[in-house]
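Task: encode each sequence below as structure tokens.

Item 1
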Amino acid sequence: MVQLWKLVLLCGLLAGTSASLPDIRGNDVLRKLKSGLERGLDTFDSTIEIIFQNLKTELESRCSDEVVEQQETENFLEQLISRIFQVVSRLTGVRIRNVQVPDITFEATSENSANVLIPITADVTVSLPFLGEIVDLDLNVDLQTTVSIETDTEDPQVVVGECTNNPESISLTVLHSRFGLLNDVVDIGVNLARRVVSSVVEGELCPRFRELLESLDAECVEKLIGESQDTTQQEPEGSR
């Protein structure tokens, strides 16, 4: 049950100064996050860079003739994004946990190009000053880009497209609200979570995604695209 003084404070904020709660808290959170992203989140947690390098090595190993357990790559991908969100949680107070990332997926669009997808799910808890935790959310967001091999030059080049970052594509579902039917408070929490996730996608996840793909050579990318074509061709007609 919400304590009486919290309800009194909340009603005051929502009555005469409703803009102050999201403006003060939201802007402060985003300022801290922007500063952290500009410094680089790996300055707050050095293991982010270590895991990222391991992920690059693991993805490159898919292009070798050696048999590598796919679970290892999935773990590195999940570890990386989990670590990034852990730093974000410390900077903002918006807790993003239980991160799940199935895998990085290549979907061939031609012999030399593919759509690349990293689906992410997580649990989000938003807190505000004086009020504490106000809402629990379920997060779904897909990192998407394209990769292709440019063959017009003597040495084939890997070309990575733009990583999409549309805040409206970030799905946030309310799981639990500690303020019942006070929709204004829930909306504040959802909007703040959306802005935080959007900033992280644009400032950290998409650049990492691009760097990961650009680290691969043309031969490796060609093999990954070819494997995705083979998988598509093997799927039963009704499952597509």
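Item 2
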Amino acid sequence: MYVWPCAVVLAQYLWFHRRSLPGKAVLEIGAGVSLPGILAAKCGAKVILSDNSELPHCLDICRQSCQLNHLSQVQVVGLTWGHITKDLLSLPPQDIILASDVFFEPEDFESILATVYFLMQRNPKVQFWSTYQVRSADWSLEGLLYKWDMKCVHVPLKSFEANKENIAGSTLPGRHTIEMLVVSLSKNSF
């Protein structure tokens, strides 16, 4: 478990939009060490962190990140993409869903979007803010977004000062090609 380059870019996007976060319901999926979710909570959002319910050590890492940052109010839940569970069903409507580098294995792409789509049904105005590292020109979300009736806006990294090799004094994201997406249901506008 470590901070992926995408997490730093998503955290930069959150920092750039920090004034809009207080009071927002935010869920981070695939949180791992939870940098974006921790930052959102520090900026006043009501955050729930989630990772794979089948990997308890991932959930322990989320809890440790909360403890280290004195965020006892942040809830940690186990969610497995593509599975309808009691924990998924009990989540309140969200305003923002965060994900950094969850689009890693192509076989998981549809399960991730199916889970996000389910959550979007509870609040059709929710936005899915996601960063991913471009690993192959052959991998695309476009067809799946269309299938799940979602639209996507690619946010230029320059627009939130994330178009550098080093952000916030770190060595990340380095020379990795990172994309920032804002996804919503097709029938709603931003």
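Check on item 2: The first strand starts at residue 25 and ends at 28. Residues 87 and 140 are 29 Å apart (CA to CA).
End of task.
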